[in-house]
Amino acid sequence: PSHPADPCPPPREPWQEKQRRLRGRLRRIVPIDVHRPEPLGAPLHPPADALLSAFCLEAVSPDGAAFTRALRHVGSLLRPGGHVVLLGALGETFYLAGAARLPVVPLAEADVRAALAAAGFALRDFRSYAMPPALRTGVDDVDGVFFVHAQKPEA
């Protein structure tokens, strides 16, 4: 048992159990191209209730305009009132994947907010954190990370 003030309480559920439950709920995994107006190649029926993107859109977008378009395209997969959760890098220009140095569009918090608005999302929550020096490993030049909850407007 943990003390209420314990900063690291024991997990309530082993990760293996969470993994089992998640796998039981997944219906399918499909390839996506966020730079196409129909990212899945055809409309999604029924549209998704929620979508999650983690460190993806900024890594596959050559510039801020492409990042905004990618958000708009991803938004087309959501039902009206659907939710998107984004996790991403701030100020990152590259990351290393083995010997390859891959470019990333460097985003500031204002860029992400503007892109969400331009893509038609209502921002529900935005949090950003500076990357502590102890977590800088040399595989990228990230300044911080952002966490976003946004919502597609009702029809």
Topology:
Blueprint lengths: L14 H11 L22 E7 L2 H4 L3 H12 L2 E13 L3 E4 L2 E4 L5 H10 L3 E9 L13 E8 L4
Parallel strand pairs: 1-2
Antiparallel strand pairs: 2-6, 3-4, 5-6
Helix pairs in contact: 3-4
Gross geometry: globular
Tell me how many strands there are: 6
Strand content: 25-35%
Radius of gyration: 18 Å
Q: Calculate the terminal CA-CA distance, rounded to whole Å.
A: 47 Å
Helix coverage percent: 10-25%
Q: Could you name the CATH topology?
A: Rossmann fold
Summarize the structure.
One of its GO terms (biological process) is methylation. Helices cover 24% and strands 29% of the residues.
Description:
This is Phenylethanolamine N-methyltransferase. InterPro entries: NNMT_TEMT_trans (IPR000940), SAM-dependent_MTases_sf (IPR029063). One of its GO terms (molecular function) is phenylethanolamine N-methyltransferase activity. It contains four helices and six strands. Strand 3 and strand 4 form a beta hairpin. The relative contact order is 0.16. With 155 residues, it is α+β, with helices and mostly antiparallel strands. The strands form two sheets. It has a four-stranded mixed β-sheet, covered by helices on one side. Strands 3-4 form a two-stranded antiparallel sheet. The longest helix has 12 residues, at 64-75. It has one domain (15-151): Vaccinia Virus protein VP39 (Rossmann fold, 3-Layer(aba) Sandwich), CATH 3.40.50. Helix content is 24%, strand content 29%.
